[in-house]
Amino acid sequence: MANTESVEVTIKEAAHEDAGRGIARLSIDTMKALGLVSGDVVEVEGRHKAATLVWPGFPQDTGKAILRIDGNTRSNVGSGIDDKVRIRKTEAGYAKKVTIQPTQPIRLVGGEQYLGRILRGRPVTEGQLIRVNILGNPLTFAVAKVAPKGIAIVTDSTEIELKETPYEPKEGKREMAGDVHYEDIGGLDRELQLVREMIELPLRHPELFERLGVEPPKGVLLYGPPGTGKTLIAKAVANEVDAHFVTLSGPEIMSKYYGESEERLREVFEEAQENAPSIIFIDEIDSIAPKREEVKGEVERRIVAQLLALMDGLKTRGQVVVIAATNLPDMIDPALRRGGRFDREIEIGIPDTKGRQQIFHIHTRGMPLAEDVNLEDYARSTHGFVGADIALLAKEAAMHALRRIIPQIKIEEEIPAEIIEQLRVTNEDFVEAHKH
Ligand code: ADP
């Protein structure tokens, strides 16, 4: 029987355009092997089980046992890119009622209709996370209950109940909320690939390095202007390999923890070792570890020495990786840039037109765009914009559209989903936003 068979496939990232659609792309030959047609429901079994709709894979994937799913589905499956999972065809009934809870305290007015529309035609199961982006606000909801139990498809007559109390996952630690995934990073394909090659392998397979007698990289330095996606990359990698993530802000260490900076550094490294695999992200490292000849105080000198010692002392066979970011690479103590510390450096530059278009796409993903919106045009006319500028512009355009309907709105407190449903963000909104 075709529908009880399962095959093993390797997870790959979804195309940018597919993110948020709740679909899985499977090569035609794999579909055939499982007796699947487009639109069938499959169960994906990784660390957890999740159900998704099947769409035919891209021509270049034909002949490969690849499953392309987005970050949200990867979280639901509990597996990351390059992990192997089993898939099988599954029967799904129709949902009578679906109970949904937010993962953070937020009131989404009219959210039932909104979520109903997003989930329409999709299979849902208990515990599944649903990630949406409402006017630049990433929100995560969880399916708390499905009736009848099991995998069921949401239809127009499915009753959606949206509770206000935040969802508490039943099984221990499960990735929650506002997570960053590879599909959320635009215009940095090559850079992201380099970071992944350096970090994913040692974090996932430390035994390989041990067997080969090769020292895995301990640190990667990302340098480039602010707002280009350095933090985003660090978070996404940590999330995708399910690593513990600790952030350390250079300026904060120097001010807030002044006098206890060394202690704080030690604590962070300890926390990382205890929770390995871990990624320690040090933002604005230049403020912690400036060139020693330029350092006046004894305190600063000691902190640099401490950081060097902690990195040299990392003995977890690649299970702790430090990613540091700076926009002033030349200001960093050269000792940190050699000898198995941050000896890999990757430039994260200002995006080109194509990169900007991808970033525009990412930040308008959940928005109801009017016909006259042309992201390619905006990408061309925003020379010099970095990712953070584009994210802000998209958000302002959406707010501009919203203000046409409701002049007084505090979107941080209450999101009027049913109004957002009728809203269209137009070219004029983008033009006005660009003027600011
Ligand atoms: P950096 O660490 O380089 O200063 P961040 O990664 O913190 O910059 O970026 C700030 C915000 O700008 C991100 O949260 C995201 O919304 C947006 N952004 C920046 N770069 C990109 C990018 N390459 N793709 C998509 N969004 C981006």
From TrEMBL:
Q: What keywords appear on the UniProt entry?
A: ATP-binding, Nucleotide-binding, Repeat
Q: Domain AAA+ ATPase, which positions?
A: 216-352
Q: Where is the CDC48 domain?
A: 107-169
Its Gene Ontology cellular component terms are: cytoplasm
Query: What span is annotated as the signal peptide, if there is one?
Result: none
Q: Could you give a GO molecular-function term held by this entry? A: ATP binding
| Domain CDC48 N-terminal subdomain: start-end pairs | 8-92
Q: Does the keyword Cell membrane apply?
A: no
Q: Which domain of life is it from?
A: Archaea
Family as reported in the entry's similarity comment:
Belongs to the AAA ATPase family. CDC48 subfamily.
Q: What is this protein called?
A: ATPase AAA
Q: Which residues of the full protein are shown?
A: 1 to 436 of 807
